[in-house]
Structures are given as C-alpha cells and as structure tokens.
Write a structure and sequence with these properties.
By secondary structure, the protein is α/β, with parallel strands linked by helices. The protein is 34% helix and 21% strand. Helix 4 packs parallel to helix 5 and helix 7 packs parallel to helix 8. The strands form three sheets. Strands 3-2-1-12-9-8-7-4 form an eight-stranded parallel β-sheet. Strands 5-6 form a two-stranded antiparallel ribbon. The radius of gyration is 18 Å and the shape is globular. This is DUF692 domain-containing protein. It holds the Pfam family MbnB_TglH_ChrH.
C-alpha cells in the first residue's frame, strides 16, 4: 500500500451517515466479520466505493497468535471480503482469541517467545496463501506481559514482519497504552520497528481505571497520543492514519474535531 490516503476513519453502521459526508475522505476500514457473504453490502459502504474511497477489511477473529492453525473458513471469508471491496490490503491482530474450541471474546496477548513467533509466522503464512492482497499485522494493547519473554516488543514484531514479509498496522494508541502501563517511553518503540513497513495506523482514545490505562475506543483521543502521532510522522509518515471509534459515539462536531486534530498532528490535509 504505497498510495498516500491521508486521514481516514473506521466505518461503523452507527456513524455511516457522518462518514458519508466527509468530503476529503480517501480511506476507511470495516470490520471484516461484519460483512456477510450472502448479504448485500451496506449502502454506506457501497456509496464510499462508488466515490473511490479505499476500504480495508479489518479482521478480529482469525486468532493469528493461537497455537492452533487458523480456521480455513475464516481465512476464506477474509479473502472474499477483500475481493468484494476491491481492497488494497487486509489487516488482523497479533493476538489469540480462542483455544481448545473456547472463544475468549477478546483479543488476548501472546508471550514474546520464540515458540510464539513460530506460531504467528505459520498462521500468517497460511493466511497469505489464500489472500489476493497483502496483510498488515497489528500489535495489540495489553494490560500484562507474560513472564520470561525471550524478546522485547521491537525485536518480536520485527522478526514476525521479516519472516512473513507482512506489512505493519501500527496502533499509536496501543503504543501509548502499553508504554504507560509498563512505565516506558512510547516513542522509543518507533526506533525499534521497520517503519517503512507501516501500511496505516490506528489512533484512538482511552481512559485510566485503577492505575491502568485502557484502550477503550470510546473516549476522545488524548493529547499525548496526538503528540505520538507527530513523533511518528517526524520519523516516517504513514500512508494513512485512521480514527478508530467503537461505541459511545460523540456528536458529529466532536468527531470532526478529532479528525482535524489527527490531520494537524500528521501534516495531512483535513478530510472534514
């Protein structure tokens, strides 16, 4: 994904009308599992495609970080959605969501071990074999680290990307959350990653509860995250930066303000 799309937004049915009215929008993302194989595309998505807006399907259920092989039917669905949308790429998480047939219902962190790297690499390659487009991998926000990790986060992610030749979906809000909870410098991770592999970025809000910062997607993007966006763009400006909101949607004026703030922090034109 080399085209510079600028600032985008995650398409959700609840804010479809708002997204449709963004005159400068060139990039959006949709949760892949929300697109059903035998149903028409939502009208809002069809209208965006007719306008030439690139739409990326974002998977949440593959469980690329699980010890078990990815389920073929889920990979087939992701590939079909990408083809249906004419997507330039797809994305998924470096996480697991099921084990032994039990669904966690949430993205869970994996240990930064050599065995975990091998498992992720194997599952990504299984997925790539069926996809007609590149895949971007997203490291998640985690409230804890597994003990006795073999690798730090930078080395862990870099090895996975190099062994799979995958792209990177860098969630700046996740970087902020993880660093805040671990007591580390968030911008330091940028200097450990192959930033030229970034396909796009997520930017979202969060909130602190009981001494831990939670990546909620329901709060406004805080200034420290916007400052991180600027720090990232000073090193390497991603092709696209996406506002990620999931639930508790604010009025349109507040969403416009968040998109404008991301544009200002990144140096891209506003889409509003």
């Amino acid at each position: 994904m080399t085209t510079a799309y600028g600032v985008g937004i995650g398409w959700r049915p609840e804010i479809a009308g708002f997204v449709a009215q963004l005159p400068g929008l060139k990039f959006a993302e949709v949760v892949a599992e929300s697109i059903h194989e035998h149903s028409d595309l939502p009208t809002g998505l069809t209208d965006l495609l007719d306008r030439g807006v690139a739409i990326v399907p974002h998977g949440v259920k593959l469980s690329l970080g699980g010890a078990e092989p990815v389920e073929p039917a889920r990979v087939t669905h992701l590939a079909a959605v990408a083809e249906r949308l004419g997507a330039p790429l797809v994305s998924e998480h470096i996480a697991f969501v099921r084990a032994g047939g039990v669904e966690a219902g949430h993205l869970l962190p994996i240990p930064r071990s050599r065995e975990a790297v091998d498992a992720v690499v194997a599952n990504v390659k299984r997925t790539q074999a069926e996809l007609g487009v590149p895949i971007a991998l997203e490291p998640i926000a985690a409230l804890f680290d597994w003990p006795d990790d073999d690798l730090d986060e930078g080395a862990f992610l870099t090895e996975i990307l190099e062994r799979t030749d995958a792209l990177l979906l860098l969630d700046v809000a996740n970087v902020y959350a993880n660093a805040l909870n671990r007591g580390t410098d968030p911008a330091a991770l940028f200097d450990r990653l192959p930033l030229d592999r970034i396909a796009y970025t997520h930017i979202a809000g969060g909130a602190e509860h009981d001494g831990l910062y939670h990546d909620t997607h329901t709060d406004a993007v805080p200034q420290p995250v916007l400052d991180l966006v600027t720090a990232l763009c000073d090193r390497h400006r991603p092709p696209a930066l996406m506002l990620e909101r999931d639930g508790d949607y604010p009025p349109a004026a507040e969403l416009r303000s968040e998109l404008d703030a991301i544009a200002k922090a990144s140096g891209y034109p506003t889409v509003t």
